[in-house]
Write a structure and sequence with these properties.
Blueprint lengths: L1 H51 L4 H13 L12 H8 L3 H10 L15 H11 L4
Bound molecules: heme C.
Heme C binds next to helix 2, helix 4 and helix 5.
Length: about 130
């Protein structure tokens, strides 16, 4: 009898602990989401503020081109990588820009940046080939 009581206390406190742990992790998740959420809001604000003024090539690269050009997805020429860019630049910057605007191979037109002007794309390319 005593053992049963002890067991039920143990099981009971374990369950309470489990429930508490669940609550705690929910709280944890909430408190983790909140600051991230506000960072995103701040980022969105900065983005829309930047959209009304000129965006730097680096900004555009970081929003629209980074996904493929940072690691060279599908053989995309990598950021500041001379070996990747030199053969492409031999065609002349106008041709390279033309290809970026219209798409080439697996490179989608404008790198899928719908709200990028021709100058924005050009600035992003200039940023990517800096020092090449
Ligand atoms: C979905 C992936 C992806 C995104 C996003 C992307 N690119 Fe590319 N890009 C590629 C790939 C793949 C190539 C190589 C295409 C080939 O030569 O077959 C490429 C090639 C290029 C080239 C070389 C063109 C040439 O003539 O050789 C330029 C310039 C370029 N991208 C600019 C950009 C810019 C600027 C952005 C952002 C606005 C961007 N890309 C976003 C995948 C991407």
């Amino acid at each position: 009898m005593k053992l049963k009581a002890l067991l039920s206390v143990l099981v009971g406190s374990f369950l309470m602990f489990a429930v508490q742990a669940q609550n705690m992790s929910d709280e944890d998740i909430k408190s983790r989401i909140e600051p991230v959420g506000s960072v995103h809001v701040a980022g969105a604000k900065a983005d829309s503020a930047a959209a009304s003024g000129p965006r730097s090539g680096e900004d555009i690269y970081n929003t629209a081109c980074f996904a493929c050009h940072a690691s060279g997805v599908l053989n995309a020429p990598k950021l500041h990588d001379a070996a990747d860019w030199s053969p492409r630049l031999e065609k002349g910057i106008d041709e390279v820009l033309h290809n970026a605007l219209n798409g080439i191979g697996s490179m989608p037109p404008r790198g899928t940046c719908g709200d990028c002007s021709d100058d924005d794309i050009k600035a992003a390319i200039e940023f990517m080939i800096e020092g090449v």
